[in-house]
Specification:
Elements: E1 2-7, H1 24-42, E2 49-54, H2 57-65, E3 69-72, H3 78-91, E4 96-100, H4 109-116, E5 122-126, E6 133-138, H5 152-162, E7 167-169, H6 173-176, H7 182-190, H8 196-203, H9 206-213
Parallel strand pairs: 1-2, 1-4, 2-3, 5-7
Antiparallel strand pairs: 4-6, 5-6
Helix pairs in contact: 1-2, 1-8
């Protein structure tokens, strides 16, 4: 059994760095659109189960509607949610656990599938700035401790090195891009990918809002 876990913050706490451009309700809509785009990729990769872990009812409803496993987050923050998923995966007999962040709306089944086929006990896909980890794949699920947040990519590498485990890096632009800032919204609008995230940005007239800030 192999699991892709997608942790999602409660919508009221999501994407606060976009507050200069989007209202809390709009940020929630954008977060759900990104989740749908990520699920399009995870559910298209054969041989892997998708689990969505969140404390938000709307997020869990989407997971159920998409026929993936919803997990009610017991304790925030992200680190606790990931530990919860690890325990669930180990209890279910999983031999591989991938944690994919929910704010990578340009991810494709091809890019994700390629990363998941990468051999090794620890596989990392870094964010564009090289500091964060957008995908952490471990075989088995607790091969190294998950350390999401600032400088997580370096922390994951050090954790693997401490245990003498080889690390494989996957540098795919579709996995490296994560949406956090108003400038990232521009990237989505310029993208040729026909995503729900881009549709929401267009519906909200994000381009005009960004232009008004300059």
């Amino acid at each position: 059994m192999r699991v892709i876990a997608v942790p999602v913050k409660a919508l009221g706490r999501a994407k606060t760095r976009l507050a200069p451009v989007l209202t809390p309700l709009e940020r929630g809509s954008l977060t759900l659109a990104m989740l749908e785009d990520v699920l399009d990729a995870t559910t298209a990769v054969p041989g892997w189960e998708t689990w969505v872990v969140s404390s938000d009812e709307a997020v869990l409803e989407i997971a159920a509607r998409r026929r993936v496993r919803p997990l009610l987050e017991e304790t925030p923050p992200l680190s606790a949610a990931v530990k919860q998923v690890e325990e669930e995966a180990m209890g279910a007999g999983a031999d591989a656990l991938a944690v994919l962040l929910a704010d990578v709306p340009l991810v494709t089944p091809q890019a994700l599938g390629g990363a998941l086929r990468t051999l090794g006990p620890v596989v990392l896909a870094p964010s564009e700035d090289g500091g964060g980890t957008n995908l952490l794949l471990r075989r088995p699920p607790k091969a190294v401790t998950a350390r999401f947040g600032r400088d997580s990519f370096a922390k994951h590498r050090r954790a693997a090195e401490t245990k003498g485990l080889p690390v494989a890096e996957v540098r795919a632009p579709e996995l490296a891009f994560d949406l956090d800032t108003p400038e990232d919204l521009e990237r989505v609008l310029r993208s040729e990918a026909d995503t729900r995230t881009r549709s929401v940005c267009r519906d909200l007239d994000v381009a005009a809002r960004l232009g008004a800030r300059t």
